[in-house]
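mind reviewing these tokens:
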Amino acid sequence: MINRRTWCSAAASAAGLAAWPAKAQATTLRVYLGGANRMDLMRKLFDSYEQKTPGVKVVIEPGGATSELQRRYLSTVLSAQDSSLDVMQIDIVNPAQFLKARWIEPLEGPLGSDPATLIQPFLPTYGRANVVGGRLATLPAYVDAQFLYYRKDLLQKHGVAEPRTWDDLAVAARRVTDAERQPQLKGLSIQGAAIDGTVCTFLTPYWSQGKELVDAKGRLSLDRPAAEQGMAMWLKLMDQGVIRKNTAEVKTQDTTNDFRAGLAVFAVSWGLAWGRYQEPDSPVKDKVGIMPLPAMPGGKPATCAGGWMWATSAFSKNKKAAAELVRWLASPQVAKILAVQGALMPAYAELFRDPELLKAQPWMAAALPVLESARSRPVTPRYGEFSDAVRTSTSAMLGRSQSVPVGVLNIESRLRRVLR
């Protein structure tokens, strides 16, 4: 038989246990990162975030090495309304598609401010790329653009000035290659395979003539003669021996490898290639300069904006915590760490003047003018179809399986169905 004193003691103990607060359950955020990231650096950043945000644990889910592979994977996961991902990096061309499909959560609500205020600190092109239909779809992780890489040592050796137009580049390239007398050395490497980078091969000479591809309402406004002139310029460079005859087969990695091996005087490639050129065993280490892409005669330099954006999943069970993580990841402090330690370019103009950053990455001093000339490819939820139309016909024109007038007409007719 339990006496009253024993029963009261047990009851008091039980009441005390009930009143004691249960240990808070940690919030786990799963972050999808593509293959271009420095995973070791990202892990250090997430460890730092966990320390400053008790109760939050961040798990990395690594993804494919290319934008296309990543888009394919995320499309599969998100179309199934899978809640396993909370935050993801997506290519700059994808926010419109992902937002229209309701795969990502607009950020202005969780972050408590209007889109214009939230994008104001960023470089204009990269800020605008995150706003779709008045909603803040994403925030910049790090940015990129196509640069003209060139061999500083060879231009200095042969007294050649940095080219300002594509005609200037043709003259400079032939002067260097003729003097060097190396059969494998080509003047310029560009991308012409049926990849997304080849969209930029079509757009950059077109844009540099002051032409727009879409109007203010997002409808097609292709100037066919200007588009033909841009493509004819590439074929002229091919006929002059400045670019390779097989340019229709050249991918981004091919350009990076050729320039790194010392097989090209100039190369059009993304900022992420810089690190490859400066590796200890690179034959071109410390011999490389960067500048804006040349313009067509009478035009202005223009380049394609690239980069990666932070998004939160519409199916996340931790949307507020995910949005706060994105706010921190897009902050100037994190952008500077990624730039200094990872050579990933920030979306903040003022950081390109930061002494600590420039000491670690002196090449970024020349990057800002290129980024300021960068333009976004069309913001459309049907970007995949847009890309396919442009890249396949551009590759065919470079391979001479389609004439320039036919190829441009094919692009125009297909885009009229996509951009409407």
